[in-house]
Amino acid sequence: MANLMKRTGSFHLPRPSRGHFAALAESILHQQLAGAAARAIHRRFVALFDGDLSPEAVLAVPPRKLRAAGLSGRKVASIRDLAAKVVDGTVPLHRLGRLADEELITRLSIVRGIGRWTAEMFLIFQLRRLDVWPVGDYGIRKGYALAYGLRKLPTPKQLDMVGERFRPYRTVAAWYCWQAVREQRKLRQ
């Protein structure tokens, strides 16, 4: 890991550029889509709201308009479920930053289309938490194997155990695992 850190430079997370609701909606929209397609659908989705992407605005738009913007039926259901749960207080966006990681993961995971991985990415990239170790992420598993010269990818359970040594900065270790994967891609090009 030390060699990887020297090669790839200092750890840094980008500053969040949007609010919590917009970030979660974008996460839902990007799931299981290639980058260009996801970005195009996201642009059309955001354009529906004329700068007012709020839970209330999403609930006011008929599902057929969301479908016309390119959202699948499942994504329409997920986005509307997120909006409804924010409006009714089940997902208290104004207080998410104060919740403990596991409590936040539990709260977000009750939203259709949001699972542990999406919640962990929200913790890392939106709330900038420094002790998140997303063991189910393929990039973390692959990057860890690359950083430590392992022939086989560690299982999530194995990765969970070895991650303990990175506490309380497991996000930093995760970020370097992602850098190992990026480094490998660059070498292959």
Describe what this molecule looks like in 3D.
- With 189 residues, the chain is an all-alpha fold.
- The chain is 61% helix and 0% strand.
- It has 11 helices and no strands.
- Helix 2 packs antiparallel against helix 6 (73-87), helix 7 packs across helix 8 (116-126) and helix 9 (138-147) crosses helix 11.
- The two termini are 23 Å apart.
For the residues shown, what is the average pLDDT?
93
Please give the radius of gyration in angstroms.
18 Å
What is the succession of H and E elements? HHHHHHHHHHH
From the spread of the alpha carbons, the general shape counts as: globular
The total of beta strands comes to 0
Number of H- or I-type helical stretches: 11
SS-derived structural category: mainly alpha
Helix content: 55-70%
Proportion of residues in β-strands:
under 5%
Cα distance, first to last residue? 23 Å
Major beta-sheet overview: none
Unreliable spans are none
